[in-house]
């Protein structure tokens, strides 16, 4: 098996423990003054990449683990977190505060970087918890012409650049086998991410962090989608009580459920 050069895309999102609020203009979710962290599915991707190296799971070994994120200056925080978890280096694609990338543009950006970095395995979260598009991994595989396995809950390496991935599907799991180069998207049951220790956080400050822009990659942030309106879910209405089974049946008929 070839030595792995793993590219790990990560995204800075509103922390999963924070309840998002829609802004006054109803154009997006309010992000000012809100705690951000690494997208939870990307956390799994970093852990899986480091675990492959630490436990020598790939016969050819791991040559390089590179984390990449596109965003404002604060995106460097999650890149440092990824490096504290074990990534060898990071790439920050600099963007303005509030500027967003659509999944297709992210895939185009990652294609350019994967080719530049000579990556042969891309491990990324199946979706981000802000956009929930779940499209980037599939689009990236299509643009690169690589094999893909989505929603991975187990990744195993064999001989001859063979990779076996167990995937979460409706009602069970599905196992697929493909050859490198490959794109894998991660699901929640894949692993349990490690905490970055203080010594590793300090070491991460000395690791290499390259900076670039979309223009450096020959790309322009072209918009294909337009958000018309963002609203909060309607408030749930309280339930009611019935005296007996006949009353329940009558209520269900009244609601059109029977």
Automatic annotation (TrEMBL):
Q: Report the principal subcellular site.
A: mitochondrion
| UniProt remark on cofactor binding | Binds 1 AMP per subunit.
Compartments, record wording: Mitochondrion matrix
GO process terms (BP): amino acid catabolic process; fatty acid beta-oxidation using acyl-CoA dehydrogenase
Needed co-factor(s): AMP; FAD
Asked if the record carries the keyword Electron transport, the reply is: yes
InterPro entries assigned: ET-Flavoprotein_bsu_CS (IPR000049), ETF_a/b_N (IPR014730), ETF_b (IPR012255), ETF_beta_N (IPR033948), Rossmann-like_a/b/a_fold (IPR014729)
> Known SUPFAM superfamilies for this protein?
Adenine nucleotide alpha hydrolases-like
* Residue stretches in coiled coil: none
- State the Gene3D superfamilies in the record: HUPs
Q: Where is the Electron transfer flavoprotein alpha/beta-subunit N-terminal domain?
A: 26-221
What keywords appear on the UniProt entry?
Electron transport, Mitochondrion, Transport
Query: Which protein family is named in the record?
Result: Belongs to the ETF beta-subunit/FixA family.
For this entry, the protein name equals Probable electron transfer flavoprotein subunit beta
The organism encoding this protein is Tolypocladium capitatum
């Amino acid at each position: 098996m070839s030595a792995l050069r793993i590219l790990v895309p990560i995204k800075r999102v509103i922390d999963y423990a924070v309840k998002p609020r829609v802004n006054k203009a109803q154009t997006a979710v309010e992000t000012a003054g809100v705690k951000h962290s690494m997208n939870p599915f990307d956390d799994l991707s970093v852990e899986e990449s480091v675990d492959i190296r630490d436990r020598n799971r790939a016969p050819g070994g791991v040559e390089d683990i590179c984390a990449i994120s596109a965003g404002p200056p604060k995106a460097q925080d999650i890149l440092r977190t990824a490096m504290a978890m074990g990534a060898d280096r990071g790439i920050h694609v600099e963007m303005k505060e509030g500027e967003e990338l659509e999944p297709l543009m992210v895939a185009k950006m990652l294609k350019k970087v994967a080719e530049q970095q000579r990556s042969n395995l891309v491990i990324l979260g199946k979706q981000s918890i802000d956009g929930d598009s779940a499209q980037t991994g599939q689009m990236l595989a299509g643009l690169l012409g690589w094999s893909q396995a989505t929603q991975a809950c187990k990744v195993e390496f064999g001989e001859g650049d063979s990779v076996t991935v167990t995937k979460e599907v409706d009602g069970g799991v599905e196992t697929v086998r493909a050859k490198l180069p490959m794109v894998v998207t991660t699901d929640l049951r894949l692993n349990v991410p490690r905490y970055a220790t203080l010594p590793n956080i300090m070491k991460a400050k000395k690791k290499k962090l390259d900076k670039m822009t979309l223009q450096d990659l020959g790309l322009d942030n072209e918009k294909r989608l337009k958000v018309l309106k963002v609203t909060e879910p309607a408030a749930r209405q309280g339930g009611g009580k019935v005296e007996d089974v006949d009353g329940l049946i009558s209520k269900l008929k009244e609601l059109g459920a029977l």
